[in-house]
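To whoever is covering the structure queue this week,

Two jobs came back overnight. Logging them here so there's a record in the thread.

Job A:
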Amino acid sequence: MTTLLLFLATALAEITGCYLPWLWLRRDGSPWLLLPAAASLALFAWLLTLHPAASGRVYAAYGGVYIAVALGWLWAVDGVRPTRWDLLGAGLCLCGMAVIMFAPRGS
């Protein structure tokens, strides 16, 4: 459960760090949005270092969680409800993440 919560926090930090510059560039937002964006991306990078697994494995598994969180963001922030195909794809990605992160490993 800790791994999933850590991945969720990481995804939210990454999406926020990318969304704020998007607001600035595409929606004529304040350039001050770049400061919390940079902080959010720094938080994202730091959160990825908290996993005890090998970095490549963490990055690969994190991608599945990121996809699911991005679709939640699509709905919550952009107001676009994901389709059943979006949800199926996200579910498959989460299954892949679970296989990568929670498979038994020899020592």
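Job B:
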Amino acid sequence: MARLRVAVEYEGDHHRERVQFLRDVHRLNALHEAGWTVLRFTADHVLRAPQRTALTIARELARP
């Protein structure tokens, strides 16, 4: 059985602050180097298009 390496992140408004943004970039690059796929979503994605957001996640999880 293959191990999935998919992370789903909710990006709230605090991610716009410089210090948090810099931490996020560092963390995302480290995850990428470790073989992870990171899907990032905002309130608009989650609240205004929940079905599309769920479908995006499901498609990623279904990849071979």
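Note for Job B: DSSP finds three helices and two strands in the chain.

Please reply-all if you pick these up so we don't duplicate work.
Q.
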